[in-house]
């Protein structure tokens, strides 16, 4: 796969230009774990982790940790097992919620998502909850993405 298949376009290329001048490569975060991310680059998937310099920028409040969907600038580190994430490109959309246990910090769930499909079962056994669906729709709308509600299991309802 190439990066265009992951959503890379001329706007992302323009935002990435300063990082390209530093010899870094673009990648998309496709999975996030505590200490590392799975990224997709033009030459395939790899594991990556934030560099020490980038972690200091996060601690200083100058940057955000990468989330699924983010475009990042990486040092591919051909001699290391993991690529080094040096920067996160500005997000077009950001799906986030209040971090559990913290009153002022947002937890980014996904970034740069155009459409979010929310699936909810209509059968009574699953406990369809309209207020919960409305809250989820509002959360997606606030992110800048388009929200689509998918209601399934209608065949099990009266």
Describe the structure.
The model has no long low-confidence stretch (mean pLDDT 88). The chain has 3 helices and 9 strands, in the order H-E-E-E-H-E-E-E-E-E-H-E. The strands form 3 sheets. Strands 1-2-3-5-4 form a 5-stranded mixed β-barrel. It has a two-stranded antiparallel ribbon with strand order 6-7. A two-stranded parallel sheet has the order 8-9. The chain has helices spanning 10-21, 52-59, 130-143; strands at residues 25-32, 37-41, 44-50, 71-75, 83-88, 94-98, 106-111, 115-121, 146-152. By secondary structure, the chain is α+β, with helices and mostly antiparallel strands.
Element order: H for helix, E for strand = HEEEHEEEEEHE
Query: Which regions contain 5 or more consecutive residues with pLDDT less than 50?
Result: none
Oligomeric state of the chains in view: single chain
* Overall spatial form: elongated
Number of strands: 9
**Which structural class is indicated by helix and strand composition?**
alpha+beta
User: Could you tell me the mean pLDDT?
Assistant: 88
| Spatial separation of the terminal alpha carbons | 46 Å
How do the strands of the widest beta sheet line up side by side?
1-2-3-5-4
Task: Write down the Rg.
Answer: 18 Å
What's this entry about, in short?
The protein is an alpha+beta fold and 158 residues long. The chain is built from three helices and nine strands; from the N terminus they run αβββαβββββαβ.
Can you lay out the helices and strands and say which pair or pack?
Blueprint: H1 10-21, E1 25-32, E2 37-41, E3 44-50, H2 52-59, E4 71-75, E5 83-88, E6 94-98, E7 106-111, E8 115-121, H3 130-143, E9 146-152
Parallel strand pairs: 3-5, 8-9
Antiparallel strand pairs: 1-2, 1-4, 2-3, 4-5, 6-7
């Amino acid at each position: 796969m190439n990066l265009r298949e992951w959503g890379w376009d001329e706007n992302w290329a323009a935002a990435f230009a300063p990082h390209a001048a530093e010899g870094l490569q673009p990648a998309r975060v496709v999975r996030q774990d505590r200490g590392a991310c799975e990224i997709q680059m033009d030459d395939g998937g790899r594991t990556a982790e934030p560099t020490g310099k980038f972690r200091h920028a996060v601690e200083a409040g100058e940057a955000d940790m990468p989330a699924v969907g983010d475009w990042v600038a990486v040092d591919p580190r051909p001699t290391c097992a993991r690529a080094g994430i040096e920067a996160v490109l500005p997000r077009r959309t950001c799906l986030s919620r209040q971090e559990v246990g913290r009153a002022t910090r947002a937890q980014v769930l996904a970034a740069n998502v155009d459409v979010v499909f929310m699936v909810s079962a209509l059968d009574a056994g699953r406990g369809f909850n309209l207020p919960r669906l409305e809250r989820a729709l509002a959360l997606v709308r606030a992110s800048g993405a388009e929200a689509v509600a998918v209601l399934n299991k209608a065949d099990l309802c009266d």
